[in-house]
Known about the structure:
- Helices cover 42% and strands 22% of the residues.
- With 209 residues, it is α+β, with helices and mostly antiparallel strands.
- It folds into two domains: 12-117, Alpha-Beta Plaits; 141-206, no CATH class.
- The strands form two sheets. The chain has a four-stranded antiparallel sheet with strand order 2-3-1-4.
- Strand 2 (45-52) and strand 3 (59-66) form a beta hairpin.
- Helix 1 runs antiparallel to helix 3 and helix 4 crosses helix 5.
- The N and C termini lie far apart (42 Å).
- The relative contact order is 0.14.
Amino acid sequence: xxxMAEPAARPVTVAIERRVDPSRTAEATSWMQAGxxxxxxxxxxxxxxxxxxxxxxxxxxxxxxxGDIPTLEDWEQSPQREWWLDSGRAFAREVRSERRTGIEGxxxxxxxxxxxxxxxxxxxxxxxxxVHQPIPLAPPRWKQAVTIWLGFFPxxxxxxxxxxxxxxxxxWPLIARVLLATVLLTPVMTYAVLPWVTRMLRPWLxxxx
Length: 209
């Protein structure tokens, strides 16, 4: 009898939309960073990032990523995360969250909160209440590949140029040079380059999806 192989674990990206009191931005910024610092101590953590919808806006978007579902759930069910969430309840309220597997998670459009009319026959009644609208489909794989390349090529080029100034670096064994380069570039790509490139290319990435 054939035995089915277990599917390979896939990274999971969680996208969360929160409403934060605009008068407590400094506290919220420190709070977000504290959450990242706590999560980074858990096995499977692959990176995170957050951005505000605009200056003065109370909408904040946060992404964090883990190697698979079990490691993600270890973080989400941990007492550390529960303490962190409790410490921010005075100024931050979670509106919605979504999970994505694979690299597609970095390419999701920012979560959007809509409003709907009250259940009333009066057409002029105030509109209220968030509507949980699904995130648009991830862009085609070829667009994702182009986006990653556009971020990785200049970053790798700059890193290679800078490492050339390290005395004797060119004489290191190939595996040592590649190891150092990947150790340096992986967090740069995860925390800075890839989120920035995807934001810049968002209209093109989402066109037609």
